[in-house]
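[Meeting: bench + compute handoff]

Bench side (C.D.) handed over the final construct sequence. Compute side (W.E.) agreed to return the predicted structure before the next meeting so the bench team could plan truncations. Sequence as handed over:
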Amino acid sequence: MDIKHIAKATAKVLASYLTYQAVRTVLAQLSETDPPQALWMSRFSTQDKIQDGEAYLLELLEARQELAFRVMTVREHLAEEVLEFLPEMTRTEILKANTEHRRQHLERITQFTLSDSGPDARTEEISPEEK
């Protein structure tokens, strides 16, 4: 397991997600203050473009520099606000989700085992010689 590689890949995904959230924030602001600009940015920000936050920003810089700078500023602010809480929140959510998955799995296999081992199941398993 290459922890450094996993950490880098996670950071890249997180940066792209924060870019997406920054775009949503800027779009919400623009829809109130400059609807034509919001419409342009919404069209520009198609689903396939925004998957890679860095590539998206490079394209936005070429198309509308002021919007790209605004998105980068919001993304930076989000990172400062969110990343402080992220490690503990992530650990807690993973532990909680894992516990819930294990509980559901245990319930499922217990119900399956109980229904298979009922009185009718035993009679089906008895060979003709045992009867």
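W.E. noted at the follow-up: Helices lie at 3-33, 35-44, 47-50, 53-63, 65-82, 86-116, 119-125. C.D. will use this when planning the next construct.
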